[in-house]
Amino acid sequence: MEILGKYREEGHDVVASISHKPHQVRGASSKTVKHIIMSLRCHRSGGVKMQAIHFLATSLLLFWSLTIFAQTNYTVQQDAFSKSYSYESRGNFTDAISAMKTVYQEDSYEINLRLGWVEYLAGQFTESSAYYQKAIKLKPYAIEAKIGFANPASALGNWDQVITQYNDVLAIDPQNTTVNYRMGSIYYGRKDYEKAEKYLEKVVNLYGFDYDSMVLYAWTNYRLGKVREAQVLFNKALLIRPKDASATEGLGLIK
């Protein structure tokens, strides 16, 4: 799924020495940085320049603290993801969810996306939809979150919401074959064969040796009364999957 001194002694300006040896600062312990700050406080008589140096040293301490926190936070999250994957592989979706909730952050795209998936696997479709919606809000151009949302939404029968998300995907990626095929399937199921044809034709033109899109496109043409086109497409479907029952049935209707 998406990744960083100054110290003055009598007669010596240490701005240059620290900038040429950054590892001395980055590798410093908190005690070392605190010692620098205390030393600087003892030399405040240096005026504005010393105030600037004091500010820089304080910033270094803050940067060091935030870096350690971020590293620790990522380590904890990675462990939670690892446990969640392990539980999922064993079909234990409840614990897979629990593992993720121990590190839940509302502003984390990755955690919301992961929870959307495992909640869906657990059959918790409403909860799954909510997590996917949060992921979509966090990254409006993320296609995977929109496609993921379609799983629980379709399970709940919220097809208009599915279509809305699919249209958003196609606005970003008009050639997306997964979404074009699914849109074709939805409209075929609704007996809106003209709309179905538009989406399926695009998939077949992109992937002419894909059985599912070929046979559905053949049936769509048949329903539209395009018998000759349907016959050709059914025969092509049989090249991909010889003796296929659906394609054979379609040819039987034409003959």
CATH architecture of the domain at 180-255: Alpha Horseshoe
Give the helices and strands as they follow along the chain.
EEHHHHHHHHHHHHHH
Main CATH class of the domain at 180-255: Mainly Alpha
Multimeric state of these chains? single chain
Task: Write the CATH homologous superfamily of the domain at 180-255.
Answer: Tetratricopeptide repeat domain
Widest sheet: strand ordering: 1-2
Low-confidence stretches: 1-29
| Overall spatial form | elongated
Helical fraction equals: over 70%
CATH topology name of the domain at 180-255, in short, is Serine Threonine Protein Phosphatase 5, Tetratricopeptide repeat
What would your notes on this structure say?
It is a single chain. With 255 residues, this protein is an all-alpha fold. Among the domains are: 5-76, no CATH class; 180-255, Serine Threonine Protein Phosphatase 5, Tetratricopeptide repeat, CATH 1.25.40. 75% of the residues lie in helices and 2% in strands. The chain has a two-stranded antiparallel ribbon with strand order 1-2. Strand 1 (8-9) and strand 2 form a beta hairpin. Helix 3 (30-41) packs antiparallel against helix 4 (48-89) and helix 12 packs antiparallel against helix 13 (227-240). The two termini are 49 Å apart. The relative contact order is 0.05. Mean pLDDT is 83; it is low at 1-29.
What is this structure's SSE topology?
Blueprint: E1 8-9, E2 12-13, H1 15-20, H2 22-26, H3 30-41, H4 48-89, H5 93-101, H6 109-121, H7 125-138, H8 143-155, H9 159-172, H10 177-189, H11 193-206, H12 211-223, H13 227-240, H14 245-254
Antiparallel strand pairs: 1-2
Helix pairs in contact: 3-4, 4-5, 5-6, 6-7, 6-8, 7-8, 8-9, 9-10, 10-11, 11-12, 12-13, 12-14, 13-14
